[in-house]
Structure formats: C-alpha cells, structure tokens
Hints:
Elements (H helix, E strand, L loop, with lengths): L13 H6 L3 E4 L4 E3 L9 E8 L5 E12 L5 E6 L3 E10 L14 E4 L7 E3 L3 E16 L5 E8 L7 E3 L6 E6 L2
Antiparallel strand pairs: 1-12, 2-11, 3-10, 4-9, 4-11, 4-12, 5-8, 5-10, 6-7, 6-9
Amino acid sequence: MPNPYVYAGQIATADQWNALIPRMVTQENDQTVTSATTGTTLVDSEISVQLEPNALYEYRLWLSYSADGAADFKWAWDLTGMLICSFTQANAAGLSTASVNDGGDVILRRPAATTNRIAGGSGAVNFHSAYDWGTLQTDAAPGPITLQFAQNTSSANDTILRGGNQTRFLYQRIR
C-alpha cells in the first residue's frame, strides 16, 4: 500500500494512515564477540524486522559500538527478497586512541548489498558511532532483514554492539 495523497474531502483508511508512521527497533542489550566466540564470523543482532511485500522503505541505522583498534568493527545486512541501496559513514579502520576525541579519518561509502561495512575502533572502553541509511525495496515474498556484526580482524579483545537503546533502526514505508 503506497503512502497516500490525501485530498480535501477524502476519507483516509487506517492502513493509509499507518503507512505514514515511522517504526523503530532497538538493540536492547550489549552483544560482545571475541576471537574465542565468533571472531570475524557475522552474528545476528537483536535488530530484525519483517517488512511488507512489494513495498519501498526508507531506513536509518544508528550504530553504537566499541572495538579494539586491532579488531575494528564489521556490520552487514542479512536479507532476502529485497534490494538495498545503502549509504554509510564510519570511522576509518585503524583509528588511533589519540584521535578518539580529536577527530580522525571518516569513510563515506555506497557499499553493494553483499559488502561488509567496516568501522574503526580504539578500545572497548571507547564508544563509537557509525551510520547506515538508504532504501529497501521488497519483492513479493521478502524474508526478514537482520543486522549482523563481527570483528573485522580476529582479536581476543571485546568487540561490542552497544544496546540499552543506543543502537537504533528506524524505517518507514514510502511506497
């Protein structure tokens, strides 16, 4: 159901009205990986959504993470039955501890659907942010879309996807 154009005197249905409302899914708990647990193998996060068939969505992902500078942070989308057009912004890999508060290199990307997104880390005690936004177009039978993450390089140090309402996925049907 596409977002409606409402004209004077027209009656809007509940489905039309609800299509206009943005929805949000949050990562409620911290999730930690190390070389001893999963290392560089992607694991599912708590961010998972079943989207409607034959629809177009706009989405925004705000990631909060902590990662060692030797491990960095990697995220990807597990999705079937949809096309994603993604734009990302993150600290460049190899971020030094000295540049945490002084600024550092940032990478802006337009990754392909199957490309892992990489964000630099500077230690498990430092909180970092990364952003991913774009559109999702579903086919007639889409599966769920699930955020996955891991260490980019295997390390015994913690890599943490931050929860507690810090990592958020906001999506809205636009057609």
